[in-house]
Structures are given as C-alpha cells and as structure tokens.
Design a protein that fits this description.
about 50% helix; rod-shaped; binds calcium ion; 21 helices; binds ligand C2E; 8-stranded mixed beta barrel; about 625 residues
C-alpha cells in the first residue's frame, strides 16, 4: 500500500484522538477543580479511563470508515489519472485559457519535448489566427453552459502546421480552481478519406477532371444563379476505333492527352468535365456566341494535331454540340440532350466540326434514333435483303462475279438504300451484326446457285472497317465458309482505304484472310488519301476505281484513270471500274485494258432470282 493512502485518514483520526483526549483531561480536571471540589481520585481515574476507551474505540471505527472511502477516492483518481495520461486522445486542462495540464498525447501532437513547453502558454497560441473568433466563442460557451458539443476545429503547431481536429470540452476543477478540460482528436486521416470519397464521387479517375456528377452540380448551380452560359458537348470521333484496336490502356492514355490539351487551351475560361466515355462537357459563363465559336474552333484545332500512342502518331477529330442558356433550354436535362443533338448534327456534317443547337435538329435526331431502333427490329424481323450487281470481264464480256448490296425492306417506308442506314449502323456498332448477316446470306446464296448448277462466279461482300477490325472477324468468316460449304476462293471482301488508318493491324488481318484463300478488293479507290505507292504494301488483289473517276472519264482529262489502271497493273492488281453508265465509258476502259467493269450500263443491282435468270442465259 502506498504511504499516501493512509496519511490523510490517519491524520484526521489523530486530530480527533488528540482533541478528544484533551477534552477528557481538561473537562475532568476542570470538573474536579470547580464543581466536585473534593471528588475522589479513584472516581476521576475511572472516568478518564472510560473516556479514553471510548475514544480509542470510536477512533478505530472512524478510521476504518474514513480510510475505506479515502482509498476508493484515491483509487478512482489514480485510474482516471492513468487514463488521461495514457490516452491516445489529446487531453489538456486550462484555466481561463492558460494551459495548466497536458497529457503525453498532447505533447507528442504539438511536437513539444515535454509538458513544460506547453504548460503556462495560452490556448490561443495553438489556434490559427483566422479561427480565433470561433475558438473564443466556444470557450465562452463552455464556461456558461458547463460543456460544449463535439466540433471540428484546427490546431496550429509551433512548426506552423494547421491540423484538423475534433474537440469536446467541459468544466472541471484543477487544484481547487474552476478549469476547462478539453479532449481532442486528430482527424486528418478521416478528412483525407472523406476527400477521397468526395474525389471519387466528383472526379474522373483517368483524367482527374470533374465527372458527370460534378458537372450536374455545377450546371444546376449556374442555372439557380440564372447566369448566362454556353454548354458544349465534345465527342472524340475516332475514340472507339482506338480503344477497340489499340486496347483500353491506349484509350486511357489518349483521354489523358486530350484532357491535358483541353485544360491547357481553356485554362480558367471554362468548367471542363469528362462526361463519360469519349465525351467532354464544357461550361463557359457570360459568353456571347462569337466568343463561343472561337473557343469551339480553337478546341477543334488543338485536337487536330497528332497524338502519340505506342510511338505512333494518331489523328483524331472531334465534334462539338453547343447550347446557349437560357435560349436552348432551361433545365439541365434538356440542355444536355440538346447539346447531344447538336453534337450529332456536327458529326453528320462530316465530323471535326461544331454546331449550335437549333430546333430542326431535334427532328433529325429523332429520325436517327428511330433508324437505330428500326435496324435492331429489322434484324430480328428479317427486313433486310441482298441485291446483287454483276461484274463483267471486259475482255470476254462474261459475268465473273456479283457484288452483294444490302437493301432494307422497311414495313412502312418501303425499300431503303444503304447510304441512308449504313452510316447509322456504323455509328451505333450495329454494323457488326448487320455485316455478319450480309456475309452469311451472300455465301449461302452463292452456294445455292452453285448447287443449282449455275455458271461458277465469285461473290463480293462489302465489309465495314468496324467489322473488319473486330477481334473475331477472321474466325467468323472462316466459320461462315465452313458452315455454308462455299470454297474460299469464291469470296471476295471489299474494304475501303479507312483500313490504312491502322495499317499494321489491317495487314495482319488481310494476311490471315488471304491464308484462308479469300480475295481482297480495295473499294472506292481514289476517294481516300492513300496513293498507289502506299497500297503496294497491302496484300490486296483487286482495285476498284471509284465511280467519280469513271464519271469524269469522257468529259475531262482521262489521263487519271489511264494512269491508275497502268500503275495498278504494274503492282499486279486486278482493276475493277465501278459505275459504268454508258458505252463511251466502257470503250475507253476497254482501250486502257481495265480488267473488270461494273455499273448500270451492264446491270443495276437486282434481286437474287433475277441474277439466276441472267446467269442461265
Ligand atoms: P459501293 O460499295 O461503292 O457500292 C456500289 C454502289 O454504287 C451501289 O450503291 C450500287 O448500286 C451503285 N452503283 C453501281 N453501279 C452504278 C452506276 O452505274 N451508277 C450509279 N449511279 N450507281 C451505281 P448502293 O447499293 O446504294 O450501295 C451504296 C453503298 O453502301 C456501297 O457503296 C457500300 O459502301 C454500302 N453498302 C452496300 N451494301 C453494304 C453491305 O452489305 N455492307 C456494308 N458495310 N456496306 C454496304
Ligand atoms: Ca463495294
Ligand atoms: Ca465502291
């Protein structure tokens, strides 16, 4: 037992004991002296002895009682002291703002060597200047009300750091004086975690730009303040292509590069957010249309420079739709929908362009949406069919093949030509499913003609770039050939110069197709940007000169067609002339020794039963 335990209780009992003894002796002697003047000594002696006995007994009882209580108090005090001293939370006591006690956690938190560095200092020495008023008001409150609720504050350490804390305080006494005990906790980690959660909720992890949530909030606020602003939706035209062909990592890198370029160009002029996928939304406050136009064309220009991905240069373009608030809509949803409509209009105008929203666009947008749904339904309901256009050997005048050309027998609109729906199918990705159907149907058709014993011809099928670069494409073609039983050398795939944009991958695919025995034709030659010298590296068999050159062949300088034919022949390509409409064109092409011809002059695209009749002749 600690000596301090019994000291106070012994002290109290000793005082009681001594005072009682004095009282007995004094009272007995006084009685003797003045009242029982001649009392017997023996009577005194027993009376004193009796008194002493009483004192001893009561002292003992009192001692036991007091000591027990004292021990309780001491023990609980000790427990409390240890708790405070060893608490992980910072605890300190102040009297009118002057710190009189601080625990070890407090010393560590402040970064002091020992308690004496802190004790004696004023509480406000550890509070940032800008938080003085708030801290003082809390100090007043705890004095008046006895305690204050938990609240977030900040602490200023001697090294100048401002640390977020959470405090609670209540009245206490310290060495008999009224004091305030404060308990506080470092909440830095919690604040960081909350910031991270907030960050994830409001920022895009790839580009670090504000995300769709953040945009919606910002947009809502701008509308509430009824500020004038322009809302722009920017869509990267070839992002899907890069994502599909170079992989998602490359896609992410591209997004980062794009956002960096946009940030660099826009600076603080606009609120820039990543809306999702390859879409960015910008909000420009207090701007006139002229200024908006400048920004939009600036963005298009900035994004037109090549991006470096995997050490190669890639070009992407962007389409921008713009709405002006409040002119083009008063609610966030409507504004966003209208920028989307305007963006599609920009895409349709040939991409790499911007468009301001106008009401007429809405009609076009709806039409597009209708088409998209229509194509899905059409695929399910067998509304598509194939027409075939003969290809003629120009030296023998015999049909050597047919090109399969898709048609849509729409339930209400009648027969729709591909130029009207293929671009939409490409935009929406439906082209893959549609293209599969075309391949399957065309191969089946030729096989059935073969089985009917018709003269042997080959079949040409148009393949869209999306389809062609699809991972599974070669396997799909091989499967279709296997299932239909069509010999591979009777299938020709027509691709366009778009494949040159990713020529490495395209060449691999072409080579795999050629390994199977399939022929490859380059369609619409002359309309793209590739020259013959580039083409010589491609494993293609046939070159289809675009109709536009054939149109001009008689009217203008015919040297272009002549040289295309000659150079193509030098590269060992079979040359096909498309869109021959009259005899003069045909004669010139024959003169230049073009191999194959196709066009209305011979035959328009016709349904399969008519091809049968033709082949039977
Ligand atoms: P293309 O591959 O260049 O097809 C040739 C187009 O020229 C066909 O139009 C054909 O009807 C037309 N044509 C042929 N000869 C003449 C002529 O002498 N004069 C004129 N004025 N036109 C002629 P169509 O059938 O409307 O096809 C348009 C385009 O649609 C095709 O151009 C092709 O790019 C695309 N297409 C058609 N079918 C499919 C398909 O199954 N899949 C894919 N991906 N695209 C297809
Ligand atoms: Ca074609
Ligand atoms: Ca063509």
């Amino acid at each position: 037992m600690n000596s301090e335990y019994w000291k106070p209780s012994v002290r109290i009992i000793a005082i009681y004991f001594i005072i009682s003894l004095i009282w007995i002796f004094v009272s007995e002697l006084l009685l003797d002296q003045y009242i029982h003047k001649n009392a017997h000594f023996q009577a005194h002696f027993f009376s004193i002895l009796k008194g002493c006995l009483f004192i001893v007994v009561t002292s003992w009882i009192f001692y036991k009682l007091i000591d027990r209580d004292f021990r309780y108090i001491r023990e609980s005090e000790e427990r409390y002291r240890k708790l405070v001293e060893n608490s992980a939370e910072v605890i300190f006591v102040h009297v009118d703002g002057v710190i009189v006690y601080v625990n070890q956690a407090g010393i560590n938190f402040i970064g002091a060597k020992n308690a004496s560095d802190i004790i004696g200092k004023h509480l406000l020495d550890f509070v940032p200047l800008e938080d003085y008023d708030y801290t003082i008001s809390r100090m007043k409150k705890v004095k008046e009300e006895g305690k204050i609720e938990l609240a977030e504050q900040r602490i200023l350490t001697p090294s100048g750091q401002k640390i977020p804390i959470e405090t609670i305080a209540f009245k206490t006494t310290f060495h008999g004086k009224e004091a305030i005990q404060v308990i506080m906790r470092d909440i830095t980690e919690r604040i960081i975690a909350a910031e991270q959660i907030n960050y994830l909720a409001y920022y895009d992890s790839i580009t670090s730009l504000p995300n769709r949530n953040a945009l919606n909030k910002f947009l809502q606020e701008a509308i509430e303040k009824s500020e004038n602003f322009a809302l722009m939706l920017l869509d990267l035209d070839r992002f899907k292509y890069i994502n599909d062909n170079l992989g998602h990592d490359a896609g992410d890198i591209l997004l980062k590069q794009v956002s960096k370029r946009l940030k660099g160009f826009l600076g603080n002029k606009a609120f820039l957010s990543r809306y999702g996928g390859d879409e960015f939304v910008l909000l420009l406050k207090d701007v006139e249309e002229e200024e908006v136009k400048k920004v939009a064309s600036g963005i298009i220009e900035k994004l037109s420079y090549p991006f470096i991905l995997e050490k190669n240069e890639y070009y992407i373009t962007s389409s921008i739709g713009i709405c002006m608030y409040p002119r083009d809509g008063e609610h966030p949803d409507l504004l966003l929908k209208n920028t989307d409509t305007a963006m599609y209009a920009a895409k349709e105008s040939g991409r790499n362009a911007y468009r301001f929203f106008d009401d007429k666009m809405d009609v076009q947008y709806k039409k597009k949406l209708e088409f998209e749904q229509g194509i899905r339904r059409g695929l399910k309901n067998d509304e598509f069919l194939l027409f075939y256009q003969p290809q003629v050997n120009l030296s023998t005048d015999k049909i050597i093949g047919v090109e399969a050309l898709i048609r849509w027998q729409h339930p209400t609109k009648g027969l729709i030509l591909p130029d009207e729906f293929i671009p939409i199918a490409e935009d929406t990705g439906l082209i893959v499913e549609l293209g599969d159907w075309v391949l399957q149907t065309a191969c089946k058709q030729l096989k059935s003609w073969q089985l009917k014993g018709l003269p042997s011809i080959r079949i040409a099928v148009n393949v869209s770039i999306h389809q062609f670069l699809n991972e599974n494409f070669v396997n799909k073609v091989a499967n279709i050939l296997y299932e239909t039983g069509l010999p591979s050398n009777l299938l020709e795939l027509e691709i366009t110069e778009h494949v040159m944009r990713n020529h490495k991958k395209s060449i691999t695919i072409m080579e795999r197709l050629k390994d199977i025995g399939i022929e490859i034709a380059l369609d619409d030659f002359g309309t793209g940007y590739s020259s013959l010298s580039v083409l010589k590296h491609l494993p293609i068999d046939n070159l289809k000169i675009d109709k536009s050159f054939i149109d001009d062949i008689c009217t203008e300088d015919d040297q272009i067609v002549k040289s295309i034919i000659q150079m193509g022949k030098n590269l060992n390509f079979t040359i096909v002339a498309e869109g021959i409409e009259n005899k003069e064109q045909l004669q010139l092409l024959k003169k230049y020794k073009c191999h194959i011809g196709q066009g209305f002059y011979f035959c328009k695209p016709i349904p399969p039963n008519e091809i049968e009749k033709l082949l039977n002749k």
